[in-house]
Write a structure and sequence with these properties.
Strand content: 5-15%
Helix content: 55-70%
CATH class: Mainly Alpha
Number of strands: 3
Distance between the termini: 46 Å
CATH superfamily: Winged helix-like DNA-binding domain superfamily/Winged helix DNA-binding domain
Shape: elongated
Largest sheet: 3 strands, antiparallel
Order of helices and strands: EEEHHHHH
Number of helices: 5
CATH topology: Arc Repressor Mutant, subunit A
Length: 102
């Protein structure tokens, strides 16, 4: 595993960016930031085990590798959508559909 500068970010042998000394992927912080528009301080509230320095490093890493991470996010979304199309409805889903709630 290589360390990216002194930025709290490391890449594993598959090239996945992780926040040092955690089990949190950079993309996890980025997805919450993109989805909710949370500030670094709010991200710290949501991820109290991360320091503000780690959060800022994750966001800086995103901006430095935006195309790569955006492709990864799009790939993940496509996989979720594919699995949703293939999945059988759950009993709860069928019950809600019968009642016209979805």
């Amino acid at each position: 595993m290589s360390t990216i500068a002194a930025s709290h970010i490391r890449r594993d042998s598959q090239g996945v960016a992780w926040i040092d000394d955690t089990n949190v992927k950079v993309v996890e912080v980025v997805l919450d930031w993109l989805a909710y528009g949370w500030s670094p301080e709010e991200l710290h509230f949501q991820f109290p085990h991360l320091t503000l320095g780690q959060i800022h490093s994750a966001l800086a890493y995103y901006w430095d590798h935006r195309d790569e991470l955006d492709r990864d996010i799009a790939r993940r979304l496509a996989e979720v959508e594919r699995r949703q199309r293939q999945a059988s409805p759950t009993p709860l889903h069928a019950h809600l559909r019968e009642r016209g709630l979805i």
